[in-house]
Amino acid sequence: MWSDPISSEAIVDAQKDFLPNSKRGTAHMFSAEALEEFLSRNELSHVVRAHEVQQAGFQVQQKGKLLTVFSSSHYCGGSNEAACILADRQKLRTIRLDTT
């Protein structure tokens, strides 16, 4: 998924659940409402995504239904941690790797 989440407060037009992603210059940004619709249509409970640096290695967003995981610590010389996901018996466990 190359689109990024956006907070509902950041969307001015209530009819828009998607906005162009000017930060990346490609793909779109999506609201929590758009995510809920996607999950419902595809009979899913959550989306796990990557490709966006998170300071703690992961971030839970959009009413707990979206999990962003970034597995590379100190990305491009930064100070971010790394994390991974373990899916076991219909449970997701986030493992944060302290790389300091």
From TrEMBL:
<protein>
    <submittedName>
        <fullName>Uncharacterized protein</fullName>
    </submittedName>
</protein>
<dbReference type="InterPro" id="IPR029052">
    <property type="entry name" value="Metallo-depent_PP-like"/>
</dbReference>
<dbReference type="GO" id="GO:0097720">
    <property type="term" value="P:calcineurin-mediated signaling"/>
</dbReference>
<dbReference type="GO" id="GO:0033192">
    <property type="term" value="F:calmodulin-dependent protein phosphatase activity"/>
</dbReference>
<dbReference type="InterPro" id="IPR006186">
    <property type="entry name" value="Ser/Thr-sp_prot-phosphatase"/>
</dbReference>
<dbReference type="InterPro" id="IPR043360">
    <property type="entry name" value="PP2B"/>
</dbReference>
